[in-house]
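Q: Give me the 3D complex with zinc ion.
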Amino acid sequence: MLTRRNLGRALAGLPALAAIAFNEAATAAPVRSKLPLVMLDPGHGGMDPGAIGVSGTYEKYIAINTALELRRQLEATGRYRVGLTRSSDVFIPLQERVAIAQHNGASLFVSMHADAISDPSVRGASVYTLATHPSDAQSAMLAQSENAADRFASGHYKAPTQDVANILASLVRRETRTESAVMQHAVVQNLAQKVPLLVNPARHAGFIVLESAVIPSVLVEMGFMSNRLDEAALRQPAHRAIVAAALRGAVDKYFASVDNGTPVAG
Ligand code: ZN
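A: Here is the predicted complex, encoded as structure tokens.
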């Protein structure tokens, strides 16, 4: 079976020219190009505000501001290249976000959100991976509202139905699923030391933005805009820096685990 790992091994056996053609960046910046690319995906943007908080905060601004802080922290380690699916206030359809990550050869995809749910008393961070069957009703509703973001796309764009999302989920490779779970576990562990968590914070559902078959992907709900305390916290740059630091630590743990070749999902 051709996996990302044995593809790398196969390429190592080919003439140098083939290897360079596979990774054009290698000719421009040989050292830098060896660093793994972490693709951050700030949710929503442009005409799609995402959830609107109880005191009027737009999720899209929380998402981009935290992603920019996380990029700064990740780049400061010198261990990663960091990409953003959007670095300004623009709308990008969900599958295009996945395509951006794939075209750039990302090693890890982290989608960042702070959505709303129906019960305003519910608060805390949670982390999602893709699955055909949702872990619980709340996660199913979250995925449904996230997947509906594409209704903001102009023209004749037609968002995939939930059934299509389910079929795609079943096609995601086992290795990708295992590594997504490794990252999910690392994020939950790190966030738990710093911020309140939702009950059972490691959850799964049919999020379209997590559908890459080859890039381990997680979606982080940093808190809920529907909760007054979460919204107030996420409005503070100091709190967003704490969340970003926890995620940066999780990225470190993730690569330490998969680079050892023994990813263990907890
Ligand atoms: Zn969202």
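A quick observation: The longest helix spans residues 237-259.
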